Amino acid sequence: MIDKIVATTIAAVAGIEDGSTIMIGGFGTAGMPVELIDALLAQGARDLTIVNNNAGNGETGVAALLKARRVKKIICSFPRQVDSQVFDALYRAGDIELELVPQGNLAERIRAAGAGIGGFFTPTGYGTLLAEGKETREIDGRHYVLESPIRADYALVKAERADRWGNLVYRKTARNFGPVMATAARCTIAQVREVVALGALDPEAIVTPGLFVKRVVEVASATPLATPGAAA
Amino acid sequence: MIDKIVATTIAAVAGIEDGSTIMIGGFGTAGMPVELIDALLAQGARDLTIVNNNAGNGETGVAALLKARRVKKIICSFPRQVDSQVFDALYRAGDIELELVPQGNLAERIRAAGAGIGGFFTPTGYGTLLAEGKETREIDGRHYVLESPIRADYALVKAERADRWGNLVYRKTARNFGPVMATAARCTIAQVREVVALGALDPEAIVTPGLFVKRVVEVASATPLATPGAAA
Amino acid sequence: MQKFTRDQMATLVANDIPDGACVNLGIGLPTLVANHLPGDREILLHSENGLLGMGPAPAPGQADPDLINAGKQPVTLLPGGAYFHHADSFAMMRGGHLDFCVLGAFQVSVRGDLANWHTGAPDAIPAVGGAMDLALGAKRVVVMMEHLTKSGESKIVERCTYPVTGLNCVDRVYTDLAVLDITPRGVEVVRMTEGMTLSELARLSGVALTLAPPPRPA
Amino acid sequence: MQKFTRDQMATLVANDIPDGACVNLGIGLPTLVANHLPGDREILLHSENGLLGMGPAPAPGQADPDLINAGKQPVTLLPGGAYFHHADSFAMMRGGHLDFCVLGAFQVSVRGDLANWHTGAPDAIPAVGGAMDLALGAKRVVVMMEHLTKSGESKIVERCTYPVTGLNCVDRVYTDLAVLDITPRGVEVVRMTEGMTLSELARLSGVALTLAPPPRPA
């Protein structure tokens, strides 16, 4: 029988190795799997490469992981925010490597990894600093940059509901990077507000089919408050 | 006010020009927009390039369009079926051009067009007749073929429900190519079983957001019977 | 020198958005446009973090941390709105499915190059977000910005001195002094503040300007 | 010469599919595997036309023309199943998310090349469908086929003479005479029909065969 439900967030992150590449869902704090990140912090893996849209807000979540010096590199689109002080200090001190990727290319590169695409030509970034050194090509009169897939060892995502097969549905704009990250990691771990019985999710509305998910943990805690005022 | 609902299938296909490239949803008869195809037949546009998974079943739908000699070229993955006699005769007589594309590459090339991707490296087809003459590349030890987007002037799709903004939900495996084709055409036309009030579709479950759809027509007719026995 | 106020600029942009358009409003000044959309037009707002049909800010106390815009401000969803994931959302922009994108800028060049993501300062922490996607993100990309920097330099430039966000991507610029079209024939003035002359505007801008044919009354 | 029946072949394949696996069963012979899946294992069937968690054929009169498999036969959906569109469905296969793919074949070469889409006959109307995607469509790709053609030629070949579907993609072959692993060391015999010998099988096959270490009893 397939049963991907694990009892605790600690069990959910068990086995994550030093040096892993870990995708973490969320756009700011919406969809950020805070409790899984806390468990990863307790688990102790280090020398991590983190893929996230941002580079941490305040002192919790991704920021806490950075503050504990577990992260050697971050791949993201928007590290600088009003409350990204932890990242800012590490970056200025040269203590963290940054790969800056335009947000749409970030999403598409993750999607490409999950979809078995070896690379793709994107118009985004052509002629800019972020395309320097990359292969370009003119196709039908438009200029493109060749971008490569971003794969991960683990993906930590937050969803609204799951069943024991690992099917996921999300909530509002907390969906963001979760569905594509779930496809791009060797082992996707989801924290959900509620585990429901098999068959309770509408098959027309399942966003992440269960084959993309390895472990599910229910975390009934309230959603953290959004941080207003920061840019994308 | 946005109101994409048109009264008749004839109005839905109005203005389709001779020489157009038209994507037609459906996998066999599931999801095939038969009534829109009938309207296209009545409308009279010719020298068409059709993009569909198959090349017509029996004598209706895509097959009827072929039989009326409106189609100069078909881009598809599986023309030969037990009931593809119309296509077979045209093809053997040299009266129709065929571009044969592996089914997954077909779906991904359509998706690429809709997503603004200039081209992508796919492993599917590498080393086969269908990749002859195409650019190839080895990436991280795997062999890929460069494939290009397939764009269309029109897409005809069948969905289950729509609202006046053009939001669509589909039914079971009749979903198939509809959502990607809807993104890849200049003008997407949907026939739906039911038009519902704005706000009646669950925003978490909308499969095709309205911005991809230009015209919607309600066709309450029963779904045609599936044709068993044909291969994919 | 008379200037358009920020609300006047937003109104000028809003009036140019046709009924039924799908629009992405960038962070900062462009956000104001939402307050000035003509009431008789149904215009759908897209936010690149995964929604189309964005509504206004929620009533006090009604904010939902799972329902935010790209600026991470709480918003609402209109009836008919839809949620989707990040790859689908940026595919909408990259694929040319949005009608309008309104962006802020540091500089716009006479050929429509946009600079709005990086000041180029060596000690700045770079951050790009969706800026480069938005620059190519709609059938029509327009910029809202002040015409001059605080020190009086033109932000309409022959060539961007800040790092560019996208090349040849801006169609129209709304400033506090004028509305300018970027065309293959050069920069054309569509509208100016009252009392402004073409020669004075060209002097302030430091680039060649012509009146757009047919000139529309200000 | 004793042969495995089609149902025996299907049982051999089915027994090799572990609990929890996601599996795509190709058209034809592979479809039989669904009838032989061990009852104590929960195995999810994928169909490339957009469903995961496919159930058995519907009861008579219950067929739904909108719910079909890749062979366009009516099927059902199990509780927990999901629908998705064609690009997402093939992304699952191309991205390596399925555990098992079971395919029919005209020929399989000793290096794992697969030929199953085209006989190469000059008057044949070509049709590929999902064959080339399925050939690369899972972590483990296995083939079910008769060992010999009707005229007695081996379908295990040194090099495919039919047009290939995919290169170096087959992991294991189940025939009516044997189960064969395609390995970097060559073709290894995992199992044979009762009474078959390695030398006789090699003679029939026309390619070099060795016993798989450790040999499993038939």
DSSP summary, beta strand count of chain A: 12
Q: What distance lies between the first and last C-alpha atoms of chain A, to the nearest angstrom?
A: 42 Å
Please count the beta strands of chain C (DSSP E, at least 2 residues each). Answer: 13
Number of DSSP helical runs of chain A: 6
Strand content of chain C: 25-35%
Q: How can the largest sheet of chain C be summarized? A: 10 strands, mixed
Order of helices and strands of chain A: EHEHEHEHEHEEEEEHEE
Spans of chain C with pLDDT under 50 lasting ≥5 residues? none
Report helical residue fraction of chain A: 10-25%
Q: Which class of secondary structure composition applies to the elements of chain C?
A: alpha/beta
The secondary structure category of chain A is: alpha/beta
Q: Kindly state the mean pLDDT of chain C as a whole number?
A: 95
Largest interface: A-C, 59 and 46 residues
- Shape descriptor of chain A: globular
**Radius of gyration of chain A, taken over Cα atoms and rounded to an integer in Å:** 18 Å
Helical proportion of chain C, percent range: 10-25%
Helix-strand topology string of chain C: HEEEEHEEEHEEEEEHE
Span of the ends, CA to CA of chain C: 16 Å
Biggest β-sheet: strands ordered side by side in the sheet of chain C: 4-3-2-1-5-8-10-11-12-13
